[in-house]
Amino acid sequence: MPAYLEGSRARVVAVLEELIAEQRRRSPGIEDRTEGRLEGDPYGPVLYDLMLDYPLREAKGLRPALCIATCRALGGNLEAALPTASVLELYHNAFLVHDDVEDRSHVRRGGPTLHAAHGQAIAVNVGDGMLALTLRPLLANIERVGLGPALRILEAMAEMSERTVEGQAMELDWIRRNTWELSDDDYIEMVVRKTGWYSFIIPTRCGALCARSDPKVCEQLERFARDLSVAFQIQDDVLNLVGGADEIGKDARGDLWEGKRTLVLLHALRTAAPADRDRAVAILAKSVPEVSLAGVPSLLARLEDQGQLAPAGRAELERALGLAELRSAAEVDALMELIEAQGSIDHARRRAREHLEAARASLEAATRPCSTPATGTSCGAWSISCWSAAGDRV
Amino acid sequence: MPAYLEGSRARVVAVLEELIAEQRRRSPGIEDRTEGRLEGDPYGPVLYDLMLDYPLREAKGLRPALCIATCRALGGNLEAALPTASVLELYHNAFLVHDDVEDRSHVRRGGPTLHAAHGQAIAVNVGDGMLALTLRPLLANIERVGLGPALRILEAMAEMSERTVEGQAMELDWIRRNTWELSDDDYIEMVVRKTGWYSFIIPTRCGALCARSDPKVCEQLERFARDLSVAFQIQDDVLNLVGGADEIGKDARGDLWEGKRTLVLLHALRTAAPADRDRAVAILAKSVPEVSLAGVPSLLARLEDQGQLAPAGRAELERALGLAELRSAAEVDALMELIEAQGSIDHARRRAREHLEAARASLEAATRPCSTPATGTSCGAWSISCWSAAGDRV
């Protein structure tokens, strides 16, 4: 990572901490409470403290880094991009909080998900609170980057949120309909929406807007960002299958446990013999139980062992609770074996490399006319920072 | 309702329908899909269609009516306020979708809640999608009402969302800590945040901003709006206890089933004999089970009747699933009897009337200098529309 990006993550976290502290101070009625009318801080423990939970966990800070790096490379300075970069990090973490509820995920960045630790109600509200806090810094941008760029950044955030929920909706619709006959292009359309827009395209666009740069440059950079996002996401899916739990900060092979549509898995299903595919789809049709039911399967087994529950009653309860739907470790292993037999990880790596090459070409086209030695950085330095933030993983 | 407000609800719904239709058209890649690459509309069934579900159900349209009425009374026209009023309705419905998930509510406006019908994942995402769509019309406001008012409306929306999640957090914190020793003032602070800001204060402020009116007038109107919101909310709580299910569009006595902190219930607990209070608090400590577990209690009872499940096993399962926590109809009746014995509904009605009187006084102070016969309406007509939208219920 180039020198001018070092420490940017710490700066971003500091901005978020100050944003939330300011919010606590601004909240009307706080003076009544210090006079003892209401005990303690009624929002802190279930709102403002929790907004910082995910952002303070170990993370790469990819989105703010891309925004800041783009701004610097195009002649802007760190101060111009910092609030916008921090808002991107806040959006990212808000999306994660809600996604974890939606995906029933147990682990995030090496710790329990917010809803696993505090319940769904608090997690949904904390996510909404984080989204609410994105607006003020973007309005304050007017003084920092000028009215035109500030308004275009607000529009960019609108577009980003719209695309993100569309990507999430595509995936939820496939889950709901148990759809597995999907091409690489279907997958790419979904992940570009679900994560590409908010992780790559909009951070890049916002960085360029903070530097008040030419819309044409923005356009070319967005092609670069789109391809980089595809390469990144495919590699993320590969890592989930071949990496250890420490490395990925989530459940190992969590994507198979959760039955996620990944380029890897979709390739395995497309190329498998019909009988193998049908067996895999039957395994994948099973849904993930609610986090709150995690201990119930073993309880049912024990009650049956102790003669307190008849086998037929257990089966009926498992159906009613959606537990018959749980994938077993053996079934997850079977999916992994199919993936290996079909060479699907190699296929995914090839596709990732293709998109990385396309990204490189777009970057070269975009940066040819925009070297900015005056700032002490250049598009060359910027591209290095992009690879180090994202591309090296492929 | 005065003539100039008639039909405003239909106009607001039409704006929301067009906003969502435009969003579908704008979504990139739609042209690929019509060429058959992806089957059908991948977002419609789980995103855009569902965004209109709550807004199209029978509702009063209180928030947009307040915004439009305020704008008209202060000399603005319907067209100036319509987009902002529609965004307020969109926010309101997005909050309802997420609140219903958080409160585990089964019924909303006479139909199943969104998460009861489509699952939590889709409901959380639809709420996020509705929030995402609020931003563009507010940016387009710049051309309609001018830059200054448009930016102040955006700030108002930020403040509104912040206060709303704080109110929700206060309530969730009380639930989490099983706190019941709360004064009328505690309750009022919570409900003003949770619903007063987005239902009364900000719709009024936005209406005044759409009419480009004096900030001083705004300030006085906000005192009016705050008191009206308290009166309205207390009356809503009373209706929940004494009205039929048809009238309130939710579960009858749903607040008692859900164990909600209402001014009525808190008064009953504060004034009851210690033994009665302890019994009531024990009933209220029980939590509401997940919607997905609705059929499980009767299944457990049947399995025990059939000799498939031992009584001890049933008790253990009920604890593990949080079903031992379910309130019974007899327990809800006991709470209602306590409320009646303590005269708590009369107390609540008195408090509601006090706030209504305070609202009336603030309104008179605010409207003395601002009669605007030129528009064919006046603050008198406006106050009538406010009462007919909200105040008459008290």
UniProtKB/TrEMBL annotation, chains A, B:
GO MF: metal ion binding; prenyltransferase activity
Family of this protein: Belongs to the FPP/GGPP synthase family.
SUPFAM superfamilies linked to this entry: Terpenoid synthases
PROSITE patterns: POLYPRENYL_SYNTHASE_1 (PS00723)
Keywords: Magnesium, Metal-binding, Transferase
Cofactor(s) for this UniProt protein: Mg(2+)
Annotated InterPro entries: Isoprenoid_synthase_dom_sf, Polyprenyl_synt, Polyprenyl_synt_CS
Protein name: Polyprenyl synthetase
GO BP, sorted A to Z: isoprenoid biosynthetic process
Pfam families in UniProt: polyprenyl_synt
Domain of life: Bacteria
